[in-house]
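Chapter summary example: a protein plus zinc ion.
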Amino acid sequence: MPQRLKEIQKQIFSRINSVEATKLVQDMVKIKSVNPPGNEDAMAIYLEKKMKEIGLEVHLDECLPGRSNVIGHLKGTVGYPTLMLNGHLDIVPPGDKRLWSFDPFGGVLKDGRIYGRGSADMKAGLASILLASKAIKLSGIQLKGDLMLTGVIDEEVTGLGAQELIRREKAADMVIVAEPTELNPVRAHKGLVFFEISTIGKAIHSSRVSSKWNKGEVNAIYQMGKVLIKIQEYLVNLEKKVDPLVGSPTISVGTITGGSKTNIVPDRCTITVDRRLLPSETIEDAKAEMENILQQLHKEDPRIKTNLKIIVSRRGAITNPDEPIVRLSKEAAEEVLGKDVEVTGSPATSDMEVFMNQRCIPTVLLGPGSLSMAHIIDEYVEVDQIVDAAKIFVIIALKTLG
Ligand SMILES: [Zn+2]
């Protein structure tokens, strides 16, 4: 690295500190941007204020009533690329608060860790983005390209915020989503389809049933039993497919409801199913495979009638390993951490798929905190990782934006 760049970098790094990192994450953990229902606006306003303090050009963009994305620009010169640093404003609910060792919205600091819902996923990532851009701005360096900071709504449910962002804003040339990856660049993730499957039976008084099912009854719960066995067998087949970055596709039944009364043969039983997709699998593929399974069952027993519905779907994503953003993310992480860093894949979905699948923008996930901390009781993030992530973002911004 040229000596001058090294000095500039050192000077910028000196402006990133753990006290400010801690304060930012604690502030944000105290903002209950729980989704559902989607209370992101206080987070959007907080980020808007912080970005304005830094000196960015900022605006809010309302996607749904009272639910806004926040967009900030550290403007470069026209004609150079734009790097977007992105994060989501929403968090999942804390679950049973009695199970937490600390207040999930308290932002307690203990032994170098900040505890709270959303600390790792992903208010720490948002803090790192702010710290990096503030340090760059304060250094007085004029970047050639645009540094774009975005906080989006509804990542935890539909990805609507990211979808609206790319529909309404000028596209970036590359994106880093600061999801918790323990500072490892992630260039692929799985997709998901949530199905609802119902079996439709025929109710009669339960005192009249016969093992030959010849009284006109069709027990929807028994029928669902056959569906459940097929789904378990299907998982065995799915596990035969292996992707080197994200592993195997999966399927899991999450809920079941059926019947209305003990003395009535149930005429309806419903399950919800979580199918995780490889980046190479489409939502249509997954639906067709599930339809096949249900048709096969119907062939084996024509009395089995089913309904299949998709409730939620998000595609998987994969960025080409030769993209500069992948290489630079790895190099920057190795420089800051002083060790070899592996480019990996993630089993969890994210807004990366929106940027990749809808706009083909090369995207990497990279941020502080561990995915194993996301959505769990006693979620925490290590302060050191927030500081390191900010430094990594600085290096990537200097190298991509000049
Ligand atoms: Zn997340």
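Key point: The first strand starts at residue 57 and ends at 64.
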